[in-house]
Amino acid sequence: MARQERAIRTRRTILEAAAAVFDERGYTSATIGEILDRAGVTKGALYFHFGSKEELAVGVFEEQLAITLPPQSSKLQELVDSGLVLARRLRSEPLVRASVGLALDQGAMDLDRTAAFRMWFDQNVQRLAEAKAQGELLPHVDVAETAELLVGSFSGVQLLSQLRCQRQDLERRVVVMFEHFLPSITVPAVLARLDISVDRAEQVLAQGRVEQGPVDDGRAAHAPVDERQAEQGAVVPAQASSGA
């Protein structure tokens, strides 16, 4: 168990290092060597957890959703909560900032950046579908189209906030987005009960957030032996390279 916990910590260290390098250099310019130096781990340890630079980027993408928030009786309230909490995390968590930065990095031509948007889109589709099943949405609402509009709106709002004030006002901007967005899709009686306040994210997080464990790629489960071997250079995939 102790070695498995060590493997989880090592994976997190690598992700944080990759996020910092991607944020500073951009995906295309970043190299595995720079990430290794920043993380302070061996090449074997890195390739034990991530088979390529693209897998590292996907791991950073997944940090957007690597949190479980307290359930609410209203699925639209859960939708609001997820947006406001993401706004807060963008201001306070480098990994989440790097995730969004990668998704919007137009210079990363060899990276499938749709993965990040697809994760968020799928999450929003699920919540909107549940809201529709509970009678929270107006009859005309198309779940998939609404989810796409929400993802695009949030992306634009956070980018504008970043350019104007380094996201210092992001939660307020997201509140304004929801105030314009929700009346067009929400049953009035449900809308009147939604909490769309600037301090909502802090209240939700105070209820207790539960961080999800790292994605189970089949490697952490074998950490007691394999990661130690990897750190000694005994386990490095054939396709591994120290370059970009």
Tell me what the structure shows.
By secondary structure, the protein is mostly helical. The chain is built from 12 helices and no strands. Helix 1 crosses helix 12. The chain is elongated, with a radius of gyration of 20 Å. 38% of the residues are buried.
- How many β-strand runs? 0
Low-confidence blocks of residues: 209-218, 234-244
Q: Largest sheet, if any?
A: none
Average per-residue pLDDT, rounded, comes to 84
What is the oligomer described by this structure? Answer: single chain
Shape: elongated
Q: Strand-and-helix sequence, N→C? A: HHHHHHHHHHHH
How many individual helices?
12
Ends apart, CA distance between termini: 33 Å
Helix content: 55-70%
Structural class per helix/strand content? mainly alpha
Rg, alpha carbons: 20 Å
Task: Summarize the helices and strands and which ones pair or pack.
Blueprint: H1 2-25, H2 32-39, H3 43-49, H4 53-61, H5 75-92, H6 94-103, H7 114-133, H8 143-165, H9 170-181, H10 188-191, H11 200-206, H12 223-231
Quickly list its features:
about 240 residues; about 60% helix; about 0% strand
Overview in brief:
With 244 residues, the protein is an all-alpha fold.
